[in-house]
Amino acid sequence: MAPPETVISLRDATATLGARPVLRGIDLTVGRGEVVALLGANGSGKSTTVRAVIGQVPLTGGSLELFGTPLARFREWRRLGYVPQRSTAAGGVPATVREIVSSGRLARTRLRPLGRADRAAVDRALELVGMRERARDSVSALSGGQHQRVLIARALAGEPELLLMDEPLAGVDLASQRVLADALREQVAGGSSVLLVLHELGPLAPLIDRAVVLRDGQVERVDHPERLHDLACHPHDTPEADTASKIETGLLT
Ligand SMILES: Nc1ncnc2c1ncn2[C@@H]1O[C@H](COP(=O)(O)OP(=O)(O)OP(=O)(O)O)[C@@H](O)[C@H]1O
């Protein structure tokens, strides 16, 4: 059987922001259909890792391949969907929920008008995050958690094969977290891969194939599903009890 396609391959990656070495030799692989969580304390390099993967932060060393192609030659950005760390869906720009979500099709449509398939993808994305009824509303009338849903729908509207999300659950209530977990499950069932930064696994825990814990710009350890399951179900029976509670509360230090 052929090995599963590697969607992200980051090897010994280093990166500097200002004068600070922020990534100090990160190895990270995400295969097709895999969901990988990046965990770690504030400032450990999670967002920078994701931003390096989408080419926003240049590597000073090591290598990055996307879908088997070195970054320098990679052009198929429409295969990626990115949800940035908490921001509002439209900084003061008057726009409806549907307009923001439709902008997620831009990489596919270039500037031609949306066709039937585009509109169907937008509808599906709105439905997945439970915002179909709010499609005509102005984004300025949304709560923080609803903004977050719109940003996720914008990424989903592009029908990405690789979804990168930076703290998608931040400030999102438990009911909305469940909605997002269902949306993600559906996306993964369709073959998408996901790399997401999390402080808490929450309702997403059952979806996670691997949790990569960063510390000071390096991979401290990688947890696999059995261990994640043990940590979630028997946090006090394992030698790592302390770590378990930290993962659940996001207080990894
Ligand atoms: N633009 C910048 N210039 C200089 N240093 C930066 C810049 N952005 C981030 N850093 C530093 O890089 C390090 C890693 O930041 P990063 O945002 O990747 O961490 P993180 O793990 O995502 O943290 P958090 O959980 O707080 O979001 C931090 O020490 C941060 O201060």
UniProtKB/TrEMBL annotation:
Record carries keyword Cytoplasm: no
InterPro entries xrefs: AAA+_ATPase, ABC_transporter-like_ATP-bd, Metal_Ion_Import_ABC, P-loop_NTPase
Segments for region (Disordered): 233-253
Residue ranges with Basic and acidic residues bias: 233-245
One GO molecular-function entry: ATP binding
Residues spanning the membrane: none
Designated name of the protein: Metal ABC transporter ATP-binding protein
Keywords assigned by UniProt, alphabetized: ATP-binding, Nucleotide-binding, Transport
Highest taxon of source: Bacteria
ABC transporter domain span: 8-241
Taxonomic source organism: Streptomyces daliensis
SMART domains the UniProt entry points to: AAA
Similarity-based family: Belongs to the ABC transporter superfamily.
Pfam family, one: ABC_tran
